[in-house]
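Worked example 3. Consider a protein that binds hexanoyl-coenzyme A.
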Amino acid sequence: MNNQDKIKQLIDLRERARKGGGEERMEIQHSKGKLTARERIQILLDEGSFEEYDMFVTHRSHEFGLEEQQYLGDGVITGHGTIDGRVIYVYAQDFTVFGGSLSETHARKICKIMDQAMKVGAPLVGINDSGGARIQEGVRSLAGYAEIFERNILASGVIPQISAIFGPCAGGAVYSPALTDFIIMSDKTSHMFVTGPRVTKTVTGENISIEALGGAQMHASRSGVAHMVAENENEGLLMIRKLISYMPQNNLEDPPAGECTDPIDRLEDMLNELIPDNPNEPYDVKDVIYAIVDHHEFLEIHRQYAMNIIVGFAKFNGSPVGIVANQPNHMAGVLDIEASRKAARFVRFCDCFNLPIVTLVDVPGFLPGSAQEHGGIILHGAKLMFAYGEATVPKIAITLRKSYGGAHDVMSSKQLRGDINYAWPTAEIAVMGPKGAIEILEGKTLKSIEEREEMVKFLAEKEKEYKEKFSNPYEAARYGYIDDVIEPRNTRFRTVRALQTLATKKEMNPPKKHANIPL
Ligand code: HXC
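Given these inputs, the predicted complex is written out as structure tokens:
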């Protein structure tokens, strides 16, 4: 073979690798409304930035006639490229080769880029579309999964890890995405479960469709496994690009700050009118978020899950932050098990990756009832308290309206090392709401009143008295628990200034191996 032949051989081999499992299987992939692994990478990364590794890797199995079936790349495409010019490592499973199933060599390819992403300090994106462990390889493929899991665990909190699920993801395979920071599922074409519908039927007798058991809508609204659902893969890949734009490359860097053309002192008069006079009337806290952040842009995470609390990313004066807000529009913004878990996980992500946390408080308390108590609200509520209390990033809280009881302490209070705590004049910060308080404080007197009319009058008077004394921000401000009471329309400016001031904040937790968050 002369040198020209050698070059031609390389070109031919590359061409062969790019064909994956062949055109017929690619057509099947397209007919299911799915893209091929290479098409996905092309959309995800900046044009022409992809550098592929291990294109010539093949499996080393001989069982079940596998030696006859060799595909260059072995069912996964790996490498790195850029998103908005920043380095990202990526792997995309190729369903056209052995159903994207994971072999020993397939796993090694993934581990190689995971190791390099850690050395370089760059985010990792995994695109999953796989029939799981390559059945013909048996235990070697199980070991391959575990190699990936361990790397996911060690990379957690060091580099951002994002998983896209664009096809089947079943059995133990679900645990790699579960160990990463964010999961994005494509609607209708992706499924995640530990055991599929057939095994479920055999073991439990339950008859359930694949969509109801592990579809994107279920995981986004019920299990909380999926952070975002995309209508199609194209949208999902653009979501990942957007998510990455709020994140630093690794835990030692700050999130990417850019120019801001939205005036930082923009007054929003409508905020002065937003809170209804009736404390039981809801409003949409997203109106506050959109009003105060740069260019009214907010990337919501877990939009369909635990809607009584809102979490997501936005920018102030060009710098990314995480936002947590109680949502009075859904279950009055009460904290329950799901809301506590959702917000705790988000707060911890922000703390890992140096994203300041801006908290908007309007919380009537924890949700009462046996379902919550038996479900362990004590432990789940403690997770959120733990997350806020251990976070060392800048923490700004603004109390818009209610802030009652234990929930007041949890939501980024001063005593959980909240750095700057503001309140609107409409804030009500107290141990409990007026009605409940009067029933307890005046219990004996209430029992002694026989006339209904007299009772109503007495209650109204006492409630008024309590409200005047406690349902305001000034009692908390008197003790310095609230740093200032601010005019609602000025919230953007005050938040930007607070963030600017806290940009150089340094705070350390006591040295330890790791904390023991109540799981
Ligand atoms: C080897 C596999 C495979 C697998 C699919 N294929 N899954 N090859 N190992 N796990 C191959 C098929 O033989 C077929 O090859 C091609 O991929 C496409 O598969 P189809 O069945 O034709 O596709 P589709 O109808 O879309 O169904 C997809 C599927 C189904 C739902 C994923 O293939 C399936 O149920 N696969 C098995 C899933 C499974 O039980 N995996 C093991 C789980 S246990 P040809 O040559 O015909 O194109 C596990 C443990 C992990 O993963 C533990 C980690 C700790």
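Take a moment to read the result before moving on. Residues 25, 98-99, 101, 131-135, 142, 145, 168, 170-173 surround hexanoyl-coenzyme A (CB under 6 Å). Residues 434-470 form one domain.
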